[in-house]
Amino acid sequence: QVQLVESGGGLVQAGGSLRLSCAASGSIVSINSMGWYRQAPGKQRELVAVINNGGSTNYADSVKGRFTISRDNAKNTLYLQMNSLKPADTAVYFCNAHIIPKAGITLDYWGQGTQVTVSS
């Protein structure tokens, strides 16, 4: 059984910073790409940033220059450093990972989500 557990969300004023973490645990052989998604009320879930196991990253245009995605492969942990936060960043943030739980199988896992609220 594989679990992704997010932490670090909360309430922050516009211009502030937060750091999200996502720890993967359980039966894991290796982890391919990992990413952060977010879903605001009444909107579809959208990609925020992704990182592959080699460290290559990709960001949504709306967060480029403000957010930084990183991972610690030794700890199976994903991070999202969010700076210069805006009210438009308010959403539930979800961690996603493509995990190999055993040889020959790759599965898609999601965390439970963590709320980020940015006040104006």
Output the keywords.
120 residues, mainly beta, seven-stranded mixed beta sheet, four-stranded antiparallel beta sheet, 11 strands
Explained architecture:
- 0% of the residues lie in helices and 62% in strands.
- It has strands at residues 2-7, 10-13, 18-26, 30-39, 46-51, 57-59, 67-72, 77-82, 91-102, 105-110, 114-119.
- Strands 2, 4, 5, 6, 9, 10 and 11 form a seven-stranded mixed sheet that branches. Strands 1-3-8-7 form a four-stranded antiparallel sheet, with no helix packed on it.
- A hairpin with a 6-residue loop joins strand 4 and strand 5.
- It is elongated and about 50 Å long.
- 30% of the residues are buried.
Global geometry: elongated
What is the share of helical residues?
under 10%
N-C termini distance? 41 Å
> Quick check: average pLDDT?
96
Give the strand content. over 45%
Q: Which structural class best describes the helix and strand composition? A: mainly beta
Q: Which assembly state applies to the chains in this document?
A: single chain
Q: Would you list the SSEs in sequence order as H and E?
A: EEEEEEEEEEE
| Number of alpha- plus pi-helical segments | 0
Radius of gyration: 14 Å
Poorly predicted ranges (pLDDT <50, ≥5 residues)? none
Main beta sheet: 7 strands, mixed
Number of strands: 11
Short account of what is shown:
This protein has 120 residues and is mostly beta strands. The chain has no helices and 11 strands.
Lay out the secondary structure:
Layout: E1 2-7, E2 10-13, E3 18-26, E4 30-39, E5 46-51, E6 57-59, E7 67-72, E8 77-82, E9 91-102, E10 105-110, E11 114-119
